[in-house]
Description:
Blueprint: H1 12-21, E1 36-47, E2 50-52, E3 55-58, E4 63-66, E5 69-70, E6 83-90, E7 96-104, E8 108-114, E9 121-124, E10 127-130, E11 136-138, E12 151-158, E13 164-173, E14 183-193, E15 198-201, E16 204-207, E17 225-230, E18 238-240, E19 243-246, E20 258-268, E21 274-276, E22 279-282, E23 288-290, E24 302-309, E25 315-322, E26 331-342, E27 347-350, E28 353-356, E29 362-365, E30 371-373, E31 384-391, E32 397-404, E33 418-419, E34 431-442, E35 447-450, E36 453-456, E37 462-465, E38 468-470, H2 472-478, E39 485-492, E40 498-505
Parallel strand pairs: 1-20, 3-7, 4-7, 10-13, 11-13, 16-18, 22-25, 23-25, 28-32, 29-32, 30-33, 36-40, 37-40
Antiparallel strand pairs: 1-2, 1-6, 2-3, 4-5, 6-7, 8-9, 8-12, 9-10, 12-13, 14-15, 14-17, 15-16, 17-19, 20-21, 20-24, 21-22, 24-25, 26-27, 26-31, 27-28, 29-30, 31-32, 34-35, 34-39, 35-36, 37-38, 39-40
Amino acid sequence: xxxxxxxxxxxxxxxxxxxxxxxxxxxxLAEGGITGSGISVGPITxxxxxxVGGVHFDVSNAxxxxxxxxxxxxxxxxxxxxxxxITGEVNPDGISGVATRVEFDRDLAGxxxxxxxxxxxxxxxxxxxxxxxxxxLSGFNSLSSLQLGNVMxxxxxxxxxxxxxxxxxxxxxxxxxxxxxxxxxxGRVSELNPDDLTxxxxxxxxxxxxxxxxxxxxxxxxxxxxxxxSNLNLQNGVLKASALRxxxxxxxxxTDSFVRLEGRITQFSNTGVxxxxxxxxxxxxxxxxxxxxxxDLGLGILLxxxxxIDEHGVLEADRLSIRQSADPTSLxxxxxxxxxxxxxxxxxxxxxxxxxxxxxxxxxDWQSGGKQTLxxxxxxxxxxxxxxxxxxxxxxxxxxxxxRGLPKADDTDSTNTDTNTDDAGTSTGGTSxxxxxxxxxxxxxxxxxxxGVTVITDTHTVYRNTGRSLERDAYFSLLQSGQSMVMATxxxxxxxxLLARELKLLTE
Length: 508
């Protein structure tokens, strides 16, 4: 999305003032900070309506847009961790609101073009994708398990170095399937060759000889930001574009907009200039800084900021909430059982350490064998927990991500269930959603296996493909073992099979 180019400096005196005034807790404002109509951008941290940026949005009357198309569905079309933009109203309490629009646009879709050798980076469609302790992996358990040709979808934030820092990475298909797979990449044009009608996005060569150019009447220019799509497999590593369009690298906002933005620092200098997800930010003596100081800031650091867009396109920050720190020694990862819970202060004891949970902590529950959202109220003493967080100057640990009952390393890599309920962190009494590659497809008995779970059907099962309802036999005729990515929603039976109420073939 388009990067704002207005520069805004902070004086050395102001920086000194902010440094001396800030601490782990900051200065209290009215709870939640800015309220009113505006836009919230960040990863989904919970369901039961949708949680983004510490705000619980009622989405019962919202319009849902996914990859440029109205889904006609509810929050079930979205995954925890995906970067979304929510338009709506934040209530005076600062922690609840009403959404009128929820929008998601993936950043990358396509094949693994180079496997991971370090377990933290991987190349997809010639683009370097990086994962960290906050990245949600769906359909597999580690980057190292992915193979060349696996078809992936990535949501995240592209840094100034061109690396895509992933908030979610999803295994869509085992390999490219004609008529099912769509490839999509975006980035800045380099090595433009108008004679051969080719250019590069990262390491990927794009051939645009047959592409539809709906909004590029002037032609393609080096350095501009484009989105490219294709329904063809890579040919000798070259993407044969079917359509391309100009795009914006980062979100853009209008003057006087109220904005809540959770993202990563994409521009930073020691003069006090920085941008969050491409949005220039300025601080004032009244800016409240939570969970640290300016010393914690640096390229790629995750933080939240809220304020108003001024006439120069700069977000004047009312509050800055620092999630990560430039100091690598502040990262803490703990594994163990909860030894105690302080509900009043939203803290728990883990391995003798005090751990604070806040409204931005990413909380996942794997106890039932799938991925569900979790709330602090759902935790109990004795729960087995994995926690990634940051040690504050006070000695307290701020939890960034907490997982209860993580899947074992030897669990199947295609496991991904995600139950969205009407109340964040609760179960729907056995309702499960399983997402993974279909195997052992039986067209006679109309059953299949997903992520090691046998999925059975009955006369009430609904079958869908690209939003269309299908008859049972027509649906099963489309399934290919080891190729088709399927989402099944239903209830567990006494023998731990899943009786599907809906089977959805995931395709464009």
